[in-house]
Amino acid sequence: MSGARQGGKSLALPGVRGTARALLLVMVAATLGAGTADAADPRAGEVKSKPCTTCHGKDGIGTMPMIPNLAGQKSIYLIQQLRGFRDGKRSSEVMSIVVRSLSDLDIEDLAAFYESLNPAGAGG
Ligand code: HEC
Fold first, then answer.
1. CA of 39 to the centre of ligand 1 (A)
2. Which of 2, 6, 28, 111 is a Cys-bridge partner for 78, taking CB atoms 3.0 to 4.6 Å apart?
3. Which residues are CB-neighbours of 13 under 8 A, at least 6 positions away?
4. CA dihedral of 105, 107, 112, 116, whole degrees rounded to 10
5. How far apart are CA 64 and CA 42, in angstroms?
6. Residue 26: what pLDDT?
7. Which contacts qualify for 59-66: CB closer than 8 Å, 24 or more apart?
8. Predicted local confidence at residue 18, as pLDDT
């Protein structure tokens, strides 16, 4: 089977094509939608970072000597540490409590947010 048929002979074909195209569009839209929902979103991370700012600063710079800077840190590392705190692989009196209720998506958003900040602080 090959090639295009002449329009007049196959009335069904345009319909089939239309349906196929519509399905394809739906699939593409669904894929894009899912991508958007699943991908780490630094802006969502910024919103979720409100409870973190007391200690890690608005700009991701630790507010006290014992609190690490997060600004500009690699997101994969941040994700690993946050999961570690949550899953008990890394222990910290404070952080283990803080991350207890975070979902994987929360963690990814937070990591994307902190990675996007300027490691030199303010303005980033
Ligand atoms: C009450 C203070 C406090 C709050 C609130 C807090 N943290 Fe922390 N965070 C700390 C301290 C202290 C450490 C160092 C832990 C250790 O000694 O292992 C830390 C460590 C971390 C680390 C590991 C950094 C590294 O370099 O390994 C990450 C990531 C982190 N915090 C993210 C967050 C996020 C995200 C939030 C908000 C959801 C948050 N923290 C809220 C105090 C806090």
1. 23
2. 111
3. 5
4. 150
5. 24
6. 66
7. 59/117, 59/118, 59/121, 59/122, 59/123, 59/124, 60/114, 60/117, 60/119, 60/121, 60/124, 61/121, 61/122
8. 73
Return d(Cα 93, Cα 28) in angstroms, integer. Answer: 45
- Name the stretches of the chain with pLDDT < 70: 1-16, 23-38, 123-124
Q: What is the best residue among 95, 109, 113 to mutate for testing ligand 1's pocket, by most ligand atoms within 8 Å of CB?
A: 95
pLDDT for residue 71: 98
For residue 48, the ligand 1 atom closest to its alpha carbon is 38
Residue 90 CA: nearest ligand 1 atom is 18
Structural tokens at position 13: 């074909």
Q: Whose CA is nearest to atom 41 of ligand 1?
A: 52
Ligand 1 contacts CB of residue 117 (under 6 A)? no
